[in-house]
Amino acid sequence: MITSNHFSDNGNPIGGTTYGRGFAIGWQSGPLVDSQGERSEPNGAFVEDIIKAALDRLEYYQGTKFANDYNKIAITYLTGALECLHARTHSREKRGVEGSHAE
């Protein structure tokens, strides 16, 4: 079972938490760039971070007696998810809105 609390300010995500058996995630709260264009350090996790953690674990399994095709397929899908999210970031960087709540 997963319990999540997602917070927003006028429809803009401003953090939250997600808990489950054996894990607790504090999500990034607010944009990384302020109204003056100053970039701050992240204060929480990004979706990409959590996907990378799951990938790391599955790749570890693949180096053990638990290696199998199911893990291999899951790795492929998680890698694809990261590629999509990196493409989104690249698009936002090109438009000059990465790190902000601008669309």
Give the tags:
single chain, about 100 residues, 2 helices, about 20% strand, globular
What does this structure look like?
The protein is globular. The chain has helices at 47-62, 69-95; strands at 3-9, 12-20, 23-27. By secondary structure, it is of the alpha+beta class. The protein has a 3-stranded antiparallel beta sheet with strand order 1-2-3, with no helix packed on it. The protein is built from 2 helices and 3 strands. β1 (3-9) and β2 form a beta hairpin.
Secondary structure elements and their pairing?
Blueprint: E1 3-9, E2 12-20, E3 23-27, H1 47-62, H2 69-95
Helix pairs in contact: 1-2
Question: Tell me, what's the shape?
Answer: globular
Task: Write down the Rg.
Answer: 16 Å
Spans where pLDDT lies below 50 across 5 or more residues? none
Structural class by helix and strand composition: alpha+beta
Specify the number of helices. Answer: 2
Helix-strand pattern: EEEHH
Spatial sequence of strands, sheet with the most strands: 1-2-3
Distance between the termini: 32 Å
How many β-strands, per DSSP? 3
DSSP strand (E) fraction?
Answer: 15-25%
The averaged pLDDT comes out at 93
Helix content: 40-55%
Could you say how many structural domains there are in total? 1
Described by strand count, sense and barrel closure, the largest sheet is: 3 strands, antiparallel
